[in-house]
C-alpha cells in the first residue's frame, strides 16, 4: 500500500522530466528544465518508490531472513530491531515531512496555474498516509517478532 501512496507524486515528477510543465506556468517551469533538476526529480521519484517498497519486507519472508544473494549476510535471520527501528524512525520522519500537505491550497503557488495547483495538491495528498502506514506495518512486524513473554503474575 505504501508504494501506491507514493506513486502519484513520483509519476508527476517523471512527467516533468519528460518536458511537460505538469501544472506550472511557462515561467514557473523554467527552473525544472535544467539537466540537474531533471536528474534530481528522476532520482527522487525512483528512490521514494524504492523506500516505499521496502515496507513490503515487513510483511514478507525476506524481512525475516536476508535473501541469500546478498553478500556476507545472505541467509541470516534479520534481528527484529534492525527492521523495526529504521522503519519507526522513517515513519516518524515521513509523518512530519508530509504533515502540511493537507493545507496545500492555503499556500500561494504563483508559479502554477490554478488547475495545476489543484491537480498537484490532489496528487500529493496520498503522501499524508506514507508515515502512518509505515508505522502500522512496523508495529505489526514488532508484534509478530517480539520475544515471547514468560508467564505473567497471576496467571
Number of strands: 0
Structural class: mainly alpha
Sequence stretches where pLDDT stays below 50 over 5 or more residues: none
Sketch the major β-sheet. none
β content, as a range? under 5%
Average pLDDT reading: 91
How many H/I helical runs? 6
Distance between the termini: 39 Å
What level of helicity do the residues show? 40-55%
- Characterize the overall form: elongated
Order of helices and strands: HHHHHH
How many separate domains make up the residues?
1
The gyration radius over C-alpha positions equals 20 Å
Protein name: Integral membrane protein
Transmembrane segments: 35-59, 80-101, 121-142
Organism: Streptomyces polyasparticus
Keywords: Membrane, Transmembrane, Transmembrane helix
